[in-house]
Design goal:
With about 325 residues, this protein is α/β, with parallel strands linked by helices. The protein contains twelve helices and twelve strands. Helix content is about 35%, strand content about 15%. The longest helix has 20 residues. The C terminus is likely disordered.
């Protein structure tokens, strides 16, 4: 069987797959080229830079499994794959710690204006009075989404002395009590949170979850952190909320359009900090995710159960 790998930084997973299968590595593959060659392959291993459209899936006459080296599968047409009996799997745990730590780092950098202060020294300035930050201890953190990453952020925030409010319709009150958290409705988070961090997948329900109407409900001076998916926040509405001084600052690892447009007006604001979608990228996480994804692909090609499948196609397809 043949496996096509378009993902970068998956060497550990490739090494595992090469023990049993023919593996072709083709980075930066244009969409039209992917469409031409996909009929040859039984499996496809991708990251977010490869869009697996309905056309690609229909052309993949031998395809049995699509593996995403990461969590989000919004770049893959999962319904089309399911209809064809193709397993779609991800690696939901491999980069959890990396994303948790990046979220905390972004929150602290936002609170203490660390990137701005760093750049001022690089520019030959010494303006310590200009970069007075705020303490996180005693502040209220609102967490939207209490899965592996959201709950991990909550534990660390509690250890830092923050008050934590959480919203997740899929988490029970008992589970929240185990985490020593208070479950509340979204509007209570908007009204009370000094910091708000978002940890939800991008779906039809969560696209533009944070929009103009929501910003109008937020506590004045709130700071927003997004290490999930860019389109969960409507960027034009965030920009307006910052200009209206509803939002005191934002820390963004993700954008609606990636790579981000250099003309994006958010990039010109002194109280917005950003990173190029690196929340899940540590040396350890990259290897774990690559191996987890490869193990799932191997199981699928062997006809074995796939524990990380995000859909439920027939295993004997």
């Amino acid at each position: 069987m043949k496996v096509l790998v378009t993902a970068k930084k998956v060497e550990a997973g490739v090494a595992l797959l090469q023990k049993e299968f023919t593996v072709d590595i083709k980075h930066d593959l244009p969409a039209e080229d992917l469409l031409k060659i996909i009929p040859e392959y039984d499996a496809l291993l991708v990251r977010a830079d490869t869009k697996v459209t309905k056309e690609v899936i229909e052309a993949g006459r031998l395809l049995k499994v699509i593996g995403k080296a990461g969590v989000g599968v919004d770049y893959i047409d999962v319904p089309a794959a399911t209809q064809k009996g193709i397993i779609v799997l991800n690696a939901p745990t491999g980069n959890t710690i990396a994303t948790i730590e990046h979220t905390i780092a972004m929150m602290m950098a936002l609170a203490r204006k660390i990137p701005q202060a760093y750049c001022s020294i690089k520019d030959g300035q010494w303006q310590n009075n200009k970069y007075v930050g705020v303490e996180m201890c005693g502040k209220t953190l609102g967490i939207i989404g209490l899965g592996r990453i959201g709950s991990g952020v909550a534990k660390r925030a509690l250890a830092m002395g923050m008050n934590v409010l959480a919203y997740d319709p899929y988490i029970s009150v008992e589970r929240a009590k185990e985490l020593k958290l208070e479950l509340v409705e979204l509007n209570e988070i908007f009204a009370k949170a000094d910091f708000t961090t978002i940890h939800v997948p991008l779906t039809q329900e969560t696209k533009y979850l944070i929009n103009k109407d929501v910003f109008a409900k937020m506590k004045r001076g709130v700071r927003i952190v997004n290490c999930a998916r860019g389109a969960v926040i409507k960027e034009s509405d965030l920009l307006e909320a910052i200009h209206q001084e509803i939002v005191a600052g934002a820390a963004l690892d993700v954008f609606e359009k990636e790579p981000v447009d250099p003309d994006n007006p958010l990039l010109g604001l002194g109280n917005v900090i950003y990173t190029p979608h690196i929340g899940a990228l540590t040396e350890e996480a990259v290897d774990r995710v690559a191996v987890d994804t490869a193990e799932g692909i191997r199981a699928a090609l062997r006809g074995e159960p796939v524990m990380t499948a995000v859909n439920m196609p027939p295993l004997n397809k």
